[in-house]
Each structure stands twice: as C-alpha cells, then as structure tokens.
Amino acid sequence: MSAPRIVVDVDNGVPPWRQVRDQLILLIGGGVLPVGSRLPTIRQLAADLGLAAGTVARAYRELETSGVITTGRRQGTVVAALPSHAPDPLSAAAAEFVAVARSLGASEGEALDAVRARYGAE
Amino acid sequence: MDVPWVPLVGFVGTSLVALLVLWPREGNGERLLKKWGIAEPNQQQVEEGVRYLKRRRLLYPWLYGALWLLPQWGNNTTQLLVVVLTGTLLAELIALRPRRDARREATLTRRGLFDIASGWVVLLYAVIAICSAVYLGLHQRWDLLGWLALSVVAVAVITWAAVARPATGDGVVDKVLRTRSVHVSAGLGAAVAVAVTLEPRAGFVGLLLWIGMANTKPDPAKITP
Q: Of A3, A74, A95, B215, which is most buried with the most CB atoms under 10 A?
C-alpha cells in the first residue's frame, strides 16, 4: 500500500491550511492514519507543499486543539484520537482517490468517468 | 590578476565537449534508477532521474572553468573531487527552491536522515573526517585543516538539503535520489579528507572510498512508498 498523501491546490479558493486540516481529518477518521501514526514535521510538510510553515502549523494547531493529534518533544507529531465527527470509511476512501486524481492532473469529470468505468467493469 | 584566457577557454571548451558526451539521456536516467533499486522505472520516473543528473552535470564545466581563477592547489584528483562536491552542493541548493505550481502533493511519511541514508555510510564519513582533523591538527597543517573544514561544511549542507528539500516526482524516486545525494556527498567528503591528509599517496584510496560510499544502495525497506 502506498504512503498516505495529501494534495493542496492553492488556486481552488479554499485556504491551504484548511485543505491540509480537512484531508488529515479524513485520513485519520477513515483509518488510513491510525492512532499512533507519526506525522511529518511542520517544516517538512510545508516544504513539500510549497507553503509557509505557519500555514501548516495552523492546520496542526487546529487538530491539536480538538485532540486529534499531539506534539511531543521526542515523538514529534502523532495521531492521538479519531476526530469527533469521523467521516465514514467511504468518504475517507473518496478523499484518497480525489488526492490521487488531482496529483495526476485529472479533472472532476475525468475522475468520475474513471469511477463509473470501474463500476461498469465489475 | 592575470587570467590565462587561452588555456581557460580551451579548458572550458573541453569540459563542454565532455558535457555533450555525458549529457544524460533516458538510458542514463533508467540505469541510474535501476542501479539504485528501482527494478522497472516508468517513463515519469526516468524523466525525474534524467532531471536529477542534468542539474549536476550542467554545473561541472563552469566549475572546472572557475578553478582557473583560483590559486593552484592540490593535485588533479583533489581538484576533481572539489568540483564534483561543489556541483553536488549547488544542485542540492537549487533543488531547495519552493514549489510554484498550483497543485502540490506530499506524502505523510516523516523524513529524517536515517530514513533515507545508510547509518554506516554516515558513520564512516564522520570517523574519517574526525581522524583527518585530529591528524592535521596534531601536525599543525592549518591550511589543509581549513580545506577539510570547508568540505565538511559542504557535506553537511548537502546532507541537510537532501533531507529538507521539497519532494519531487513520485515517492520512491524521491527517496532514492535523496539517498544517492547523501551517499555521494559522504563519499566525496571522505575522499577529500583522505586526499588532504595523506596526499599525494592516497588519492587512489580516496577515490575508492568515494566510489564505495556513493554506490551503497538504499535499504529496500526504506524506499518502499
């Protein structure tokens, strides 16, 4: 299984920190990132996504406030609990699929066509 | 300062011819990735490998040329090592540029030095660098100690940048190329340390160290996405 990933589109109108937070909630709630999973450092995630460290820090801070993740000196940032409004697994799977489709440059229509084709094939 | 223009132009010209010969093509990118543990690289992965090689090889002729503007020092082997180490350093610094495309992707895997590099390679380089520094200090070779210190700083910066730079390409290629950068820089650093300590007797030993460390493949478990 490939490593979980997130995709940020800085042109889609949703603030990047919220995109990061929402995708993390979906991945944690869907079990893709189970409790105890170590998350990348703020600096690493910010560099990989081309965002300011403060943007990723805000997403992490929101999740810390709600108790979903904790940050310790030795362990770094770790998934601590499921979000209180955990999305269902189907929603989490959809979030992963959308992230992959976006990374491939597929439009919404193309992604939906691929899903329909897959359903038709089985 | 009198610049020896004719030999300099000849030198850079020769380097450019060498660059044309060494200019990385798809076959080079594919070989690079296969050598570093990716059995069947796809087209996108190969392109990433070629891009990685181009960033480095494009710099070498200009760095060779720049050597002519510096006071002559060291032998040919040491100068070759310094050029390749400087090229690796500049390429990693260039790769630190932040991403500008609208759609950006990141894996949620934590990336530390020992997640990408072999502990043995890093440890061996550290031991060689420390032994060289002690030897040069005891013999009061401060000029050579300065060169050693510069090379250690260069290796440290390359290692930091290889861990910290933004991800490119897919996860596997990204990790493999980061590993390569750390191992190659450690090998070059070890070769420089040996060259400044035991020169001119041990240039060959330094080259062997460089080749050995630079070809230490990543742990397959570490590059699994």
A: A95
Residue B167 C-alpha, separation from nearest chain A C-alpha, in angstroms: 5
pLDDT category of residue B150 using cuts at 50, 70 and 90: very high
How high is the ipTM of this complex?
Answer: 0.73
Q: Could you state, in order of their start, the residue ranges of all structural domains in chain B?
A: 5-223
**What distance in Å separates residue B42's CA from the closest CA in chain A?**
15
Q: How many residues does chain A have?
A: 122
Tell me the one-letter amino acid at A24. L
Q: Which residues of A touch B (CB under 8 A)?
A: 2-11, 24, 27, 33, 37-41, 43-45, 47-51, 76, 99, 102-103, 105
Nearest CA in chain B to A32: B108
How many CB atoms are located within 10 Å of the residue B10 CB? 11
pTM of the model: 0.78
CA–CA distance, B185 with B12 (Å, rounded to integer): 24
Residue numbers in A near B104 (CB within 8 A): 7-10, 48-51
Q: Supply angle C-alpha B166, A5, A67, rounded to 5.
A: 105
pLDDT of residue A1: 52
What confidence tens digit (pLDDT) does each residue in B115-148 have?
Answer: 888 899 999 999 999 999 999 999 998 988 998 9
